[in-house]
Amino acid sequence: MADFLLYERDGPIVTLTMNQPEVRNAVTGNTAVPEFVAACEKITADLSIRAVIIAANGTVFSSGGNVKDMLRFTTDEISPASLRQWYVTGIQLLTKALYNLEVPTIAAINGPAIGVGCDLACMCDFRIASDKATFAESFIRVGIIPGDGGAWLLPRTVGMAKAMEMAFTGDPITAAEALECGLVSKVTTPEDLLPSANELAKRIVKNPGNVLRMTKRLMRESQTSSLDAILHMSVGMQVIAHKSPAHLEAINAFIEKRTPNFADE
User: Could you tell me if residue 129 is inside a domain?
Assistant: First the structure.
């Protein structure tokens, strides 16, 4: 089986494409987790990267966990302790790596995003969907709970009431319904999906990379921190921003009425 992720770069934009359509881009029972973790580490270490697009080949964004592979978890050969360790050192590492990625992330959702696939989309900062996309928090349909952090991710994306409806029923919602509840910010035709994701990425990467990374960190921390904590963090980051070459370039460009040129930092 080929590598799970295709890593492509266009200037400051990286596109990570899930590339196992033969298994509906399932993210368990293969090398998806270590490949995602390695890609995120590579992106974080390269300060010239300013945006990431998560896409998928085939007709399915991701079917989530490989249900056939889960059958082995029901046997006596895998103890509860080792199964717990499988989650902690497996799918939960993907959640932490992608959610905490320093640069802005855009999920370009071409088709069904099921279970972990739905949650993977929620790990990203933006979600753009093809009108062929559907979304389901479907863990309950196979007798398990969202062990990847979906119970934390989904309510912060669609609100608690909608998240509970999706989690308790496992029912899929359409792209139009996902737009209505805020799960996605835009619905396109299949042909316009990646161009739309790239257009958004290009609007983002016009801005200085160091400030993008600090702004994302502040936005992430604001979800769980107090106002006083965010104000304290903001002061430290703002000092760094004021003293950066990007800030000086932005001010000079504004005064000189020209487009700023933000070099990699």
Answer: yes
Which is it for the CA torsion 34, 167, 80, 24, positive or negative?
Answer: negative
With respect to residue 260, please indicate whether it lies within any of the assigned structural domains: no
Please report, in angstroms and rounded to a whole number, the separation of the first and last CA atoms in the chain: 38
pLDDT, tens digit, 9 for 90 and up, residues 30-83: 999 999 999 999 999 999 999 999 999 999 999 998 878 877 877 878 899 998
Assess whether 194 and 218 both reside in one domain. Answer: no
Q: Please report, for the domain that includes residue 134, its CATH number.
A: 3.90.226.10
Unique residue bearing structure tokens 């703002």 = 238
Residue 29 tokens read as 């029972």
Are 131 and 249 found together in one domain? Answer: no
- Segment holding 192, helix H or strand E: none
How do residues 159-190 score in pLDDT, each as one tens digit? 999 999 999 999 999 999 999 999 999 999 99
Rounded distance, CA 126 to CA 57, Å?
Answer: 19
Interatomic CA distance for residues 108 and 128, integer angstroms: 5
